[in-house]
Design goal:
This protein is mainly α. The protein folds into three domains: about 90 residues, Orthogonal Bundle (Fumarase C, Chain B, domain 1), CATH 1.10.275.10; about 280 residues, Up-down Bundle (Fumarase C, Chain A, domain 2); about 60 residues, Ribonucleotide Reductase Protein R1, domain 1. About 65% of the residues lie in helices and about 5% in strands. The chain has 19 helices and six strands. It has a two-stranded antiparallel ribbon with strand order 1-2. Helix 6 runs antiparallel to helix 7 and helix 9 packs antiparallel against helix 10. The two termini are about 45 Å apart.
Length: about 450
């Protein structure tokens, strides 16, 4: 019965889960065995009719999962159980199944086939999230809000700028995934310890043919296994993607606090329940789940890195860990990407609250502008900083508007007119290149998407 939440359907899509279920794994192992028999027939190492017989029977329609498990229970070897089950249904042609190969040839190549399907789904989800962020950045490129550093009011920014930053981070992840895929989606047919001795004089040609048929790249060189730096890179990358989603979700959670109340995760008010005991609650549940799953994703990095070392040409310390690592990482990141795309596509933005929150510091958020205005009138910058710092602290301590305190200061008022002070305190005058940056980021993203064959 299901135990883990990725087994009972709480996390993960059916599409991604099917890539890693037991029957799909078995089919991928059979695909590799079939490709090997075909390649050996192509070079004349086994009769073509026997290769065709093996290829016809290399399907879960003929090789049943229950039978493979029954054999494994007896012989205690996973790949040999598949080999025997395939040989059983192949009749006399079964004598040629797995000829010259070692277990890792089949296992590692089958993993690459699964990862090819999984990474395609992950790339699709990244593209979808990127598109949502691109539309949001463009929509809110002029929407002013409070910029915060150290959790404190800093200077005005736009919500579109925040979204554009996230958009470009996702764009970089898409690029990293494509680059990483070229190193991860490789297979091998090099036999025990990697010398290809068991595959005979046509070994190199056989490996090339197998990978061509499976649409994978062959390893340049290997021991008995495909080296695990490749998989470690992928797990690290997926964990970095998870951390970006964690960052976005955390920001939404922070800005959804009632005392801030600027953006909100969508909440179905007619039906959705926020708390079992507090009926008024409107919790950012999806964002919190994403943050929680990011912890699990990052925890997978250590075993992935520890899988890189191996005793000599091969041991079995990788396989047990990878049975968790690979499906879990792909299923969870797929779920997280879908979740954050849905959150951002339905995000509720309170632009009035954003403007209202900018008044909390009574104009003090514009202290840099006043300081620079004084410096622009030939006052020493350091002196201007100290004067404005002192007046800002007075405004805070006395709970008075910053403008009033500035006008009462003889030094400031003798240099800056009231009109100049008003201009300095208007946040609309101090957005710099924010809008332009958003537009340039969106344009760059559109061009990249076009190069990937996607629409804007």
């Amino acid at each position: 019965m299901p135990i883990l939440p990725i087994d009972n359907g709480r996390y993960g899509t059916q599409e991604m889960s099917l890539v890693f279920d037991e029957e799909s794994r078995l089919q991928r192992l059979l695909d590799v065995e079939a490709a090997l028999a075909w390649a050996q027939a192509e070079v004349g190492d086994i009769p073509r009719l026997d290769a065709e017989g093996i290829m016809e029977m290399a399907s879960v329609n003929h090789v049943k999962l229950d039978r493979v498990k029954e054999i494994e229970l007896e012989i205690k070897h996973d790949v040999m159980s598949v080999v025997r089950a395939l040989a059983e249904v192949s009749g006399s042609s079964g004598a040629y199944v797995h000829l010259g190969a070692t277990s890792s040839d089949i296992l590692d190549t089958a993993t690459a086939l699964q990862l090819r399907d999984a990474l395609r789904l992950i790339e699709e989800k990244l593209n979808g999230l990127e598109e949502v962020l691109m539309k949001g950045a463009n929509r809110y490129k002029k929407t002013m809000m409070m910029g915060r550093t150290h959790g404190q009011h800093a200077l005005p920014i736009t919500f579109g700028l925040k979204l554009a930053v996230w958009m470009r981070e996702i764009a970089r992840h898409s690029q990293r995934l494509r680059e990483c895929s070229s190193r991860v989606l490789v297979g091998k047919m090099t036999g025990a310890v990697g010398t290809q001795a068991g595959l005979g004089p046509h070994a190199t040609e056989i490996q090339g043919l197998v990978m061509e048929r499976l649409n994978l790249r062959p390893v340049e060189v290997s021991t008995q296994i495909v080296q695990r730096d490749r998989l470690a890179e992928l797990i690290c990358l997926l964990s970095i993607v998870a951390s970006t989603l964690d960052k976005i979700a955390t920001e939404i959670r922070e800005l959804q606090r009632p005392e801030i109340g600027e953006i909100f995760e969508f909440f179905e008010r007619k039906k959705q329940v926020g708390s079992s005991t507090m009926p008024h609650k409107h919790d950012p549940q999806t964002c919190e789940t994403v943050c929680g799953l990011a912890k699990i994703m990052r925890s997978l990095v250590v075993p992935a890195l520890e899988n890189v070392p191996t005793w000599h040409e091969r041991d079995m310390t990788q396989s047990s860990a990878e049975r968790f690592l690979i499906p879990e990482a792909c299923i969870l990141i797929d779920h997280m990407l879908i979740s954050m795309t849905r959150v951002l596509a339905t995000l509720q933005v309170d632009e009035e609250r954003m403007m209202k929150n900018m008044d909390i510091t009574q104009g003090r958020m514009m202290s840099e502008v006043v300081m620079l205005a004084l410096a622009g009138k030939d006052m020493d910058r350091q002196k201007a900083h100290e004067i404005i710092r002192r007046l800002a602290m007075r405004s805070y301590a006395d709970n008075r508007f910053f403008k009033q305190v500035l006008l009462e200061d003889d030094t400031v008022h003798s240099i800056l007119s009231e009109e100049e002070i008003d201009e300095a305190l208007d946040p609309r005058n101090y957005l710099g290149t924010a809008t332009w940056q958003v537009e340039m980021a969106v344009e760059k993203t559109k061009l990249e998407r076009k190069a990937r064959g996607l629409s804007g």
